[in-house]
Amino acid sequence: MNITSSRFSRWSSAAAIALVGAMALSSCAANENTTPNDGNTSTLTGTLVGGGSSAQGSAQQAWVAAFQTANPNVTVEYDPTGSGTGRDNFVAGANVFAGSDRAFKDDEIAADNFAGCVAGTGIVEIPAYISPIAVIFNLDGIKNLNLDPDTLAGIFKGTITNWNDSKIAAENPDATLPDLAITAVHRSDDSGTTENFTDYLAAVSPVWDAKADGVWPYDGGEAAAQTSGVVDAVTNGTGTIGYADASRAGTLGTVSVKVGDKYVPYSSEAAAAIIDASPQVAGRGATDLAIEIDRKSDAAGVYPIVLVSYLIACSEYKDPASATLVKAYFDYVISDAGQAEAEKSAGSAAISKTLYTKAKAAVDSIK
Prior knowledge:
By secondary structure, the chain is α/β, with parallel strands linked by helices. Helices cover 35% and strands 19% of the residues. The chain has helices spanning 14-26, 57-70, 83-92, 106-111, 149-157, 166-171, 192-204, 226-236, 268-276, 320-334, 336-346, 353-364, and strands spanning 46-52, 74-79, 97-100, 123-138, 144-147, 183-187, 222-224, 240-245, 253-259, 262-264, 306-314. Strands 1, 2, 3, 4, 5, 6, 7, 8, 9, 10 and 11 form an eleven-stranded mixed β-sheet that branches. Helix 2 (57-70) crosses helix 11 and helix 10 (320-334) packs antiparallel against helix 12. The two termini are 33 Å apart.
C-alpha cells in the first residue's frame, strides 16, 4: 500500500471497515488486545498527531485505518516526514508521538528537553516495527545478486563503479553483468534507514571508514528524499542501486548479503531472527526498549541489514488527554492484530511474545 500524500488521517472507506473485520476474525488471542476496540463502543475522542519514519508509512496507514474505524471519534494523523524530523518535532512538542528508525541516543535523553513531557519523567521507546532493509537495484534481466559486505561498502562508497567489476563478477559467476556504470542512490534527508544501513556497513566492513549516521557520509552518488524518493530513483534509473524498507522493493532486483559462508536474502523471518539474537541497549529504563542490533552475527538464517523502528512517547504527558490517546493507539499497534496488519500491509516481522510483554508494560505505564 503506497502513501499517496504526505499526510493521512481519517479513512472512511468500506475497504477499511472490511479490513478491520477480517483482522478481528483472523487474529490470535495470545496478546491481551487483539482488536483496537472489541464491540466498537469506544468512548475515546480527540486528535492524535504523530510523525516521523517513512519506513513505517504503509504500516501506519493500516494501523490508522483500523484504529479510527474502531474509535470513530478519534482522528490519528501521522506525517511520514522521516525519522530525524519526527524526533525533532517530538522534542519540540509538535508531535504527540514519533516514529523513528533509531532510538534516541543517551545524550539526547539526558538533555530532558521534551516539550510535551513532564520534566524528569523520561520517554517510552517501543520497537513496534521490525523490517529488513532491502538493497534494491535495476539491471535488465537480473533479479538477484550475491554481495559480501566489502563489495556492498565499495559500491556505496563509490570505489566500485561498474557493474562488471571483478569483485561483483566473482560473487555472481552465473550472472551476465553489463559494462555499465553504477549509480548508487542514497537518502538526502536525515534518515533512520540510512543510519541502520551505515551502521551495518561500519560494523562489518573495513572498506567503510565512516561512522553510522542518519546523514549520508560520502560525496558522490545520487541523493533522493525519503523512502519513496530512493525507490523512484532506482526504478526510473538504469544501473541504479539503493536501499529501502523491504516492503517497498516491489519488482526491483534485490541483493542477498553474505553472512558467514552463506548468502542470505531478506525476509521477515530472517529480520526477526537477528533481533532475537541481539541485546537491549545497556543502561536504559524499564520503558525504554531500545535494541543494540548485532550486525556481525553469523548465526544461521539471520539477515543483518534490518531496521527496528520505534514508537516513541512521553512516560508522563503534560496533557492527560494525550496520554489516553497514545496509550490506546500504542496498545493496538503492539497487539497481535496490529502486528499482523503491519506484516500483511508492509511485510514486517511481528514482535516476539517476550518483547510484547515488555512493550505492554511500557505502554501501560504511560500517564
